[in-house]
Amino acid sequence: MTDRKTARPAEAMDVARAAQRTLNDALATAKQLKTKSREAKRRVKVAKRAAKQASKAARAARKAAQEARRGYKKAVAHLGKVRAKAAKAGRKEEKIVTPKRRSPSRNHAPPRRADRTRRRVWEVGEDGAENGRVPESATAS
Description:
Elements: H1 2-5, H2 9-94, H3 124-131
């Protein structure tokens, strides 16, 4: 019984070395994890900065799109007014302004009025008798 309880120096040295290796491995792992953590934090910081810049750019793009939309609406409204004005001017140019006719048209006979008296028809013999000369016949040329 006493043999078992007494410490053996060789086994104790092996146990101490194993504990040392475990400690060194744990320290190396902790160092690596700390480095990875630092790198991850750096990446997060860079990603946040990139996200912030992207958000800023998106906001600026939305604002530019809104301004472009307003400008387009104004341009379309102005174009409508300009077209209407040009069409109106075009209609004015198409009309040829002439003075109002004061004499009746030669192509159309004047409308006959019932109250107007008919012209007197002259007989051939009457005309010649009054002026003292002989009238020409209608068939002579």
